[in-house]
Every structure is written in C-alpha cells, then in structure tokens.
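User: Could you go from structure to sequence for me? I need the amino acid at each position, not a summary. Structure tokens:
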C-alpha cells in the first residue's frame, strides 16, 4: 500500500501544474477524457447501427415458421389483412410526426450568435384550435380503426355450427361426419390434445346425474365443469401429445385449458394467440388452407423450460386424415415373447415408465381409484393411474401411438434422423408413411434412436425440468445401454 503511494508520487510524469512551459501537456491531459468519451460514443453508435441492421436483415430471412405475416389459414389471413392497413396508417403518422419535428427544429433553429437566454419561442399554450385538433384527430382515427378490429375479434370467436345441431366430426368407428372438436391442455412443458371422437363432449359424467358437459353435450352440467381434468376425461376420446393433426381446409374448434400454470397457444400461420388457463375453458379455432406442418411456440412465460415448449400442427388432406385417425383409434400392440428385444423393452417400460405414461394396449384397468392426493411417483411400478380415466396420462404424454409423431418433448426434438424438429415436413403425404410404417421406415427417415436413448436416460439434462414436483420426467441412471436399446425397440412398435 505504502509503496504504491510512493510510486504515485515519484513517477507521475506530469503533475497538474500550470507552468507556462508545461501548459501544452496539461491541455492535452485535460482534453483527453473528452476525446475518449467522444470515441466511445462513436463506438456505441456504430455498434447500435450494426445491431439495428442485423435486426433488419433478420426480418428478410427465408423460411420463417413463426411468421404472422405469412398466413396459411383463413383466421390468420383475417388478422393479417386487418394489420396491413393499420400498419400503413401508422407508417404515415410516424413519417409525418418524425419528419415534421425535424423540419420544425431545423426551421426554428436560432444561430448561436443570436442566442438569447431570455428570448422564449412563441408560446402556443391555450391555442384552442390546435389543442382541439390534436385531441379530436386521434380520437377519430382510433374510432375508425376500432370498427374492423372489433368486428375481427368477434369473427375470430366464431365456432362451427351450433352444437345442438348434433353434427359431429368423428364417429367411434373412425368414420366421420360434421366437425371435429379438440381440447388443448397446456402442460409444463408440452401439449396434450384430446379429440372428442364419440361426439359426447370432453368430459365424463363424473357426478352420475346423466348429464355431461361439452360443446356437443346437451345443455351442460355445471358440476362436471368443476372438474379435475384427470378424472373428468371421457374414456372414449383420443389422447395424443405434442403434435396436433388436423384435416386441411376445415375449421377445427379448440377448447383450451391448462393443468398447471398459464400457457399460451400460438400457431402464427394459422391463428393468433390464446391463453390456456387452469380451471378455465377458452374457445379458439384453427384452420389450415393446405396440408403441411405448422410450427408454434408457447408465448406466455410458464417457468423453467418455457423457451423449450413448442407446438407442431400437421394438416393432412381429408382421406389422409381419416387414415391417420383410424390408426390412432387402434389399441397399441402387446409384444410377444418371441420378439426378445421388444419384449424386454416392454417389461422395462411396465416397471419404470407406466407409473406416469399411458400406453393404451387394452390392458388398462379402470379402477375406482380416484385419489387426487396420491403421488404417481409413489405408486408401485406397473400399477395404473390413480384416477378413473386411465387414458389420460396426467402429467406425462400418452405414448400409445408415440412412433407416429415426428416430434417429441414439447416439439423440440425430432424422432427421425433426417428430419429436424425445426423443419417443416416437406410432403405431408410422407407423414402418413412415417405413421403407418413400423417406426423404422426404409426411406430417408429412420427413427433417431440416439436422441431417444439420450432422452430416456437423462431427460432433465436435455430440458430443464422439476420431476419431483410432477413437472417433467426423471432421469434413469440405472438403465444400461442395452436396456435403453430395448426400450427404444419397444417404443418404435407404438405406431
Ligand atoms: C415421473 C413421471 C415419468 C416417468 C416415471 C417417466 N416419464 Fe417419460 N415423460 C414424463 C413427462 C412429464 C414427459 C414430458 C416432458 C416434456 O416434454 O417436457 C415425458 C416425456 C417422455 C417422452 C417424450 C414423449 C413425447 O411425446 O413428447 C418419452 C418417449 C418418454 N417420456 C419415455 C419414458 C420412458 C421410456 C420412461 C421409463 C424408462 C419414462 N418416460 C418414465 C414423465 C415421466
Ligand atoms: Cu408454456
């Protein structure tokens, strides 16, 4: 400490004196900080220019799966066509205000030699016409813009024909007539979809009074809407996860809710956003003009892995969709001992995974086990869920037809080597081939075993989760490489 002080005193080359012979050096020293801050300001300006340009250029990116400005369905088109004129009006006002301000500033500029502190500019305060003008003009503008906006909001709320008409999209035998309703359940951090297959609504008659609630259900039963989504689910419905499959060219009505916290459902090329709120049902709809894959993203901050909670919707042509639905309604195959690897995987799955995941192979029992407080982690391995409707996997994805989907884990990973989770499926026809194949098609796409094994052995390492709080999947350090191979072999049969 002392030596440093001493150094300072002895080695400072230019002590701040004002002797005439040193004034030059002193002046330089006084000026230095200013020059430095100017150059720093320049650097900041350059950096922000580069950042701004980078942002601008990124807007020109090709192939933008989340682009609101590339609508691919009537709902998204309605939003887009509402936005365009409003952006034009905004643009005109922006140019008028900004350039008007600059022009007035330049015009009213006082030359430095004429500057007089006491010389105030002309005061417009109290100018009646001006003040009324700039109050009324924006009010009129907003009133005009609100007409198409409010109209648009009403239109976006419109669902398919009155449920009382009895029209229903999908029949229990897989044949279809009328409309399809899908329930969307936000989960931390993935999506569950339930298809109202038998057209009796989404819920069971939990209180046994003969009435069920649902968009197609007669009337509505308030008691059944105060449900726990675990127990109120209709056993006859179809439950899938992470990849919503819809028929192209048809409006699908959605009912959105959430199991845990508020999420937001958003597939920008098909429609705007709608929040999924625990304990509430929100209606929304989707329609894609053409077959294809449409990507989305959860847009309400929902904790740890919010950024890794994506969604994927695949639109298929009518006949393709029928084929898909028909396949989804089949029970999963129960492996035979003859196929050793798959059999071993099946055993492992029963022992380690069935306490959370559901594979509907016809062996699910529907016990009267309505115990909301039981922790699935404490259940004996191999026992079924602690609620009536065993079809819903509760806080874990239903895996009955796992191998027919192209994405998993909140649509962040692709099942197939050669298909990136970010890539749209090139040809929607191929999707069905992936689906009905044995999970290991010969074409360009092969089941990506490595990524699945990595996930099963240590999922929390791939995606931050809190499995102890029933939010996510635990890791399985005890599973050997061979076990993982067997599990993947079994999962590949779930097509
Ligand atoms: C404690 C409950 C729990 C157990 C036990 C469990 N999982 Fe999971 N699993 C989850 C949850 C929750 C997710 C969803 C995680 C996410 O995507 O954020 C998941 C996701 C998956 C997925 C991806 C599914 C999809 O469509 O996104 C697969 C595959 C999977 N688990 C396989 C297994 C296997 C195999 C086992 C047994 C070795 C197992 N899980 C055991 C809770 C569990
Ligand atoms: Cu979310």
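Assistant: Here is the amino acid at each position, in order:
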């Amino acid at each position: 400490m002392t030596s440093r002080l001493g150094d300072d005193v002895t080695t400072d080359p230019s002590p701040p004196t004002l002797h005439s012979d040193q004034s030059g050096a002193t002046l330089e020293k006084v000026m230095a900080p200013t020059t430095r801050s100017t150059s720093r300001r320049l650097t900041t300006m350059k950096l922000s220019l580069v950042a701004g340009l980078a942002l601008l250029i990124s807007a020109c990116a090709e192939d933008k799966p989340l682009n609101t400005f590339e609508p691919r369905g009537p709902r998204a088109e309605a939003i887009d066509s509402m936005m365009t004129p409003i952006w034009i009006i905004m643009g005109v006002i922006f140019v008028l205000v900004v350039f008007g301000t600059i022009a007035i500033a330049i015009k009213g500029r006082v030359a430095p030699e004429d500057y007089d502190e006491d010389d105030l500019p002309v005061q417009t305060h109290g100018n009646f016409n001006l003040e009324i003008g700039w109050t009324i003009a924006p009010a009129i503008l907003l009133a005009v813009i609100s007409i198409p906006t409010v109209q648009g909001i009403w239109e976006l709320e419109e669902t398919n024909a009155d449920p009382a008409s009895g029209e229903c999209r999908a029949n229990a035998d897989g044949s279809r007539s009328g409309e399809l309703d899908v329930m969307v359940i936000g989960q931390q951090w993935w999506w569950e979809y339930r298809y109202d297959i038998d057209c009796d609504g989404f819920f069971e008659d939990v209180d046994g009074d003969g009435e069920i609630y649902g968009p197609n259900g007669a009337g509505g039963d308030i008691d059944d809407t105060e449900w726990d989504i675990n127990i109120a689910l209709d056993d006859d419905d179809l439950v899938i996860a992470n990849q919503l499959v819809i028929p192209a060219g048809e409006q699908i009505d959605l009912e959105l809710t959430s199991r845990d916290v508020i999420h937001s459902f958003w597939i920008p090329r098909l429609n705007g956003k709608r929040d999924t709120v625990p304990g509430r049902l929100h209606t929304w709809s989707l329609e894609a003009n053409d077959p294809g894959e449409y990507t989305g993203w959860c847009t309400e901050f929902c904790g740890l892995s919010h950024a890794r909670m994506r969604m994927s919707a695949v639109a298929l042509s009518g006949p393709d969709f029928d084929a898909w639905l028909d396949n989804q309604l089949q029970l999963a195959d129960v492996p035979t001992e003859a196929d050793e690897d798959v059999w071993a995987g099946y055993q492992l799955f029963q022992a380690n995974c069935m306490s959370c995941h559901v594979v509907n192979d016809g062996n699910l029992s529907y016990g009267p086990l309505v115990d909301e407080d039981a922790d699935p982690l404490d259940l004996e391995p191999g026992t079924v869920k602690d609620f009536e409707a065993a079809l819903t996997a509760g806080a874990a994805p239903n895996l009955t037809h796992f191998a027919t989907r192209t994405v998993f884990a909140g649509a962040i990973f692709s099942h197939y080597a050669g298909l990136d989770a970010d890539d749209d499926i090139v040809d929607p026809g191929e999707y069905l081939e992936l689906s009905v194949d044995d999970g290991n098609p010969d074409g360009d796409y092969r089941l990506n075993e490595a990524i699945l094994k990595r996930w099963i052995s240590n999922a929390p390492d791939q995606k931050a989760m809190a499995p102890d709080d029933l939010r996510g999947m635990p890791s399985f350090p005890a599973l050997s490489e061979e076990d993982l191979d067997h599990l993947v072999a079994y999962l590949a049969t779930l097509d």
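One structural detail worth keeping in mind: Residues 189-190, 241-242, 349, 352-353, 355-357, 377, 395-397, 402, 408-410, 456, 463, 465, 467, 472-474, 476, 487, 491 surround heme C (ligand 1) (CB under 6 Å).
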